[in-house]
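Continuing from the previous page of notes. For each protein in this section, the sequence appears first, followed by its structure tokens. Read the first protein now.
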Amino acid sequence: MVGKQGRVTGRIGPGLVGEVMVPVRGGVEAFYAHPSIPDEEISVGSIVVVVEYFPPRTVYVARAVV
């Protein structure tokens, strides 16, 4: 999971549990997402990279550099 890119489908920010769609096992799955940098907000549609994974469905993400 760490290092995979995903797309934000539910806004991520302080006090919010966002949602990210990440490609897994030939499909795409939803994960609960938190920002890796405290107080950062990431809007819907942004591309992010998973920096931490907590099974079964929680990830911490950072904005992808494009």
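Done with the first. The second protein uses the same format. Note its length before scrolling.
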Amino acid sequence: MKINYSFKFIGWFLLLAAHVFAQSVESRLTKAEIEFSRAQTGLRSNSVFDIVVHQNRIWLGTGKGVSMSEDSGQTWRTFTQENGLGRGGVSAIAVNDTMIWVATIFDSLTADAGTLPTGGGLAWSKDLGETWIWVQQPGPTPVQNNTFDIALHDDGSVWIATFGGGLQRSFDLGQSWEVVPPDKNVFDPLAFLNHRAFSVISANGALWVGTADGVNKSLDDGATWTNFNHANQAEAISGDFVVAIKSHVWRGTEYLIAGTRDADEEEEDRGVSISEDGGLTWRVSLLGAFAHNFAAYDSMLFAATDMGLYKSLDFGKTWARYPDIYDAAKDAYYYSSDFFAVGISAGNTLWAGGSDGLASSNDDGQSWSIQRGSVQPGSNGEPRTYAYPSPFSPFRSNTIGDGDGHVRFQYNTVNTTNVTVRVYDFAMQLVAEVVNGKARPAGGTYFEVWNGRNKRNEVVANGVYFYSVQLDGDGTYWNKFMVID
């Protein structure tokens, strides 16, 4: 019986939610950051969890609110709790012609279970973010009841997929909510994995819901449901945990693309499951990848996964991985292979987001532009240098493939200079020289990258480390960071 899977499932759920936790921690703005960011036209966050493109506007769900661009990403407006959103990082966005809905998540420290994900409620706007109406997280408690996905249905209802609260809908803009189990059972998420919802879409008159027990389809606004899982079909989805669903119509055929991953059955696997016949049969591909999100344009599909960014020209029969992302203009790499979101905007511009910012390409990946959000060193009372991330894990932070992690030492320049960056242990013994005499222009914000290895190419031990940024003709600036594995 699948109720026996619950303990392993909860462990997987906490791993999935960790992506959002990183954003919720980052979302705690200081007063100085708030004042600075009100005048900022760039991104505020390095964590991009969702990308929605609608009517030539690009909406991002980030660790510090919702960012929106109307000029192809040249400038961004960001909306946060200060503007009326809920507390924490953004976990879901839905946009249609008349409104936008946003859900947030933060972490709560509990007495019995330690840190747990907590729903920060939902907010909606009918004027492109000028004003927001916030509604509290529906359910008996917001703890372990965060919203993973939102869908705006044809009948005017809004649907949310939540962990502890299940699948819910509202007809009155969130003032009241109704739990709608995608089966005939009385709602009980402890007894039924199909009541733990992760993804929901409204497409072509149908509702599609991804749960911990497969894909569910309703053609009558949620009155009745059909369940497709790994065990009840000959040509089935790869695994019963369905974390993402997308519908794409091309030349009269609707393609249902699902991010499906293994539960407890040995024959299940993580991958991408695609149906061309309304869910009656599925074919699976990209096995081994945890697909977080999808985008589609004409006959092309794109997948944001934990193993990189992928593209398919044959509707998911075969996939090609984009090479590691490099911004030649900034001489900067995208230090992560784990992408949470992908989108396509006007001019076939490809957007990809994850824990290391936002990357975009208008030539199908031949060249890239990377945008990151960060506090500007040396501005608005901030120090001249700081390390990101801190704590830093040499095995997990900003990794590319199976390689090392990377920590960035941010700094700014006043005059044309040469920069030298060195790392020291707690006893002030030299651990590594990151760069020596590297030329940097005046009046800019830059960073140097270190992989957590010492002069003998050994990964350093856990602890507190100091580093210095020496700017010729300016001075030497110090700060510290933590290494934790």
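What the second structure shows: The chain has two domains: 2-371, 385-483. Helices lie at 6-26, 31-38. We return to this in next week's lecture.
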